[in-house]
Amino acid sequence: MHRDEAKKKAQALVDQMTLEEAASQLSYQAPAIERLGVPSYNWWNEALHGVARAGMATMYPQAIGMGATFDPELVEELGDISATEGRAKYNAASRHGDTDIYKGLTFWSPNINIFRDPRWGRGQETFGEDPTLTGEIGAAYVRGLQGKGDTMKAAACAKHFAVHSGPEDLRHEFDAVVSKKDMAETYLPAFKKLVTEAKVESVMGAYNRTNGEPCCASKDLMGRLRGDWGFEGHFVSDCWAIKDFHEGHHVTDNPVDSAAMALNAGCDLNCGCTYEKLIAAVMAGKLSEDKIRESAVRLFTTRYMLGIMGEGSAYDDIPYTVVECEEHLRKAEETARKSCVLVKNNGLLPLDMSKIRTVGVIGPNANSFSSLIGNYHGTASRYITIQTGLQDALAGKARVLCSEGCHLYLDKMSSLSQEKDDRLSEALTVAENSDVVIIVVGLDETLEGEQGDTGNPYGSADKLDLLLPASQRRMMDAVLKVGKPTVICLTAGSAIDLKEAGDMADAVMVCWYPGSQGGKAVADLLLGEASPSGKLPVTFYRNEQLQEMPAFTDYSLQGRTYRYFEGEPLYPFGYGLTYGDVYVQAASVEKTADGVTVHATVKNDGAMDTEDVVQIYCQNEGSKNAPLHPRLVAFRRVSVSAGKTEHVSVSVKQTAFLVVNEAGDFVKEGNVKLYVGMGQPDARTQSLTGHASVTVDC
User: Fold this and answer.
1) 335-563: which CATH topology?
2) Has residue 459 got a pLDDT over 50?
3) pLDDT (tens digit per residue) in 504-519
């Protein structure tokens, strides 16, 4: 149903409601209004990387892994899977009269905040540190979720608006102070793209303040959203964020004032209970009845567009049997393969199984379900860990020996055992009896995540440093000293510095939290059934470089992300090896009506077919307002057979060549140069890959 028609229906319905009835609909737990035939509806649902928190669903890699694919077309398919399974589950629950939380069609996803600081526990929920990558991947997921039909398949939500990226333990009282330049250049572009291009149906406000204003009642942010960008959907608060107005931020004195402040600013839906005070706010003269009805109309417009107000839709026939169907599971597996990033390989990978009879699999995340799922996850009916993936792949071909090696973060596995390292001798024995060793280490949602959702032993959900827990470091170092050919598989949602272990290992693969099918995908990559092709969506810093960064609470970009970092990273943003040898041979630019088309000749001098990612970076030479380093402006996945050449054309809009001045204005400045390659045009990437980007004037 078109928005105009849906809005007319919503207006007619709300006009029939009493003020109390209309106000009741502004809570995430909207009650039924039986006299008007309005069913109850719970707005709160999650689909960050598959339908979450409501039973079985296809679970693909965590969002940071989706970002690592650099593949918007694939991510759009994942959005459609989320919407399809969400519809199937909604249809099934509705037939049983179940309208509980996590059963609706309004998904509070994707998270398009910028992963500006590697310590942030929720960075795993984002698509990375770059505004262009985040915008492209986020818009693709929204398109997939919402669909292209007359009826919206599901409603997506761009969160958390805006300037939100930790610290987690301060978010209910924190004021993120940010310059106009950083706001326009870094924190807002992805939101603008999702609103103006992907037409995202809802936007969620963040917990924190931004430049003094609570994000769920910010005149500045709301002005941009509904004014400059023409947003027509509904705005929802983060959960219990409006309560923070008086309890954390102290910008109001009581819940009545907080409710009035939020609704007057344009926050339509309260995830929380503060909007129970809306009628009291009207009686106190702090809020008009019209404001309540205006927000109710916006909310019912969304419900009519979803076709869930009794009129029905073609999506009502989606059967429950599509949930975790073979097609969806294979797409999750494909995403996991494309998300893994090979950051080091001295030639050990892919494993030559003609020379290997025994594989040792060691580490606390080797057979851990938690290491597959990240946070905001659904439930899979079957989990394929890296250990089981290798066991399945090598059944009848090679022996697989296994050891947990150590606890994820405690010094010992058993409370009755010795003081520390009670599984180390087993790990060493496995290594001694193996021809090759796969060490699987990392984190899970108990060590990085959202405040309150984890049992983080550090006291909040953020990381203190970029190192693995000491128990894992001791285990890795000891196993590597055995001297067997060794691969480290890292499952985490953020940058990790492996220190000496990374130097000693023959190969290192970043697997993120790869989803329920992740173990099969990783096994395929290790064994050469497919080539790795993921790229880092974040900079991997050296742990000691944290000391060079501004404080975690400082929201300036100075010294953070690849665009402003002054040191040499451990592994750069956009970097990732393959089993081929792919590079850009030549590039040229063709001007178009609204920008340019970059034509690139891509060669694979390697012995294996692979996919890779053509990346285009821009620098405005002579500009005082350009970022320190060239910035990503476009990218395209490409498949290149061994020894073959492919020709790729990528469009870049003229607006990508503008820079942002201190007033937050986009201006034309400097001489525009484009760098076309398979990664950044920096010395570290060139050193790691052996190839430089091709430079073209624009």
Assistant:
1) Rossmann fold (3.40.50)
2) no
3) 999 999 999 999 999 9
Alpha-carbon distance 613 to 172, whole Å?
A: 39
Bond from prior residue into 162 cis (ω within 30 degrees of 0): yes
Phi and psi at residue 456, in whole multiples of 5°? -55, 120
Q: Where are the domains of the chain?
A: 335-563, 582-697
Active-site hit among 238, 244, 462, 497: 238
Give the pLDDT confidence score for residue 453 in this predicted structure.
Answer: 58
Pairing state between β 671-677 and 610-621: antiparallel
With 80 as the cut, is the pLDDT of residue 188 above it?
Answer: yes
Written as one letter, the residue type at 207 is Y
Yes or no: say if 575 and 535 are a contact pair by the CB < 8 Å rule. yes
| Fold that domain 582-697 belongs to in CATH | Immunoglobulin-like (2.60.40)
Residue 238 annotated as catalytic: yes
Q: Is 623 left (phi over 0), alpha (psi -120 to 50) or beta?
A: beta
pLDDT score recorded for residue 396: 96
- Are residues 215 and 221 in contact, defined by beta-carbon separation less than 8 angstroms? yes
**Its pTM surpasses 0.90:** yes
| Rounded Cα–Cα distance for residues 200 and 205 (Å) | 14
Phi-psi sector, 593: left (phi>0), alpha (psi -120 to 50), beta: alpha
The DSSP element (H or E) to which 289 belongs, if any, is: helix 289-305
Lookup: tokens for 111? 């998270």
pLDDT of 455 above 50: no
Q: How far is CA 471 from the centre of its chain?
A: 28
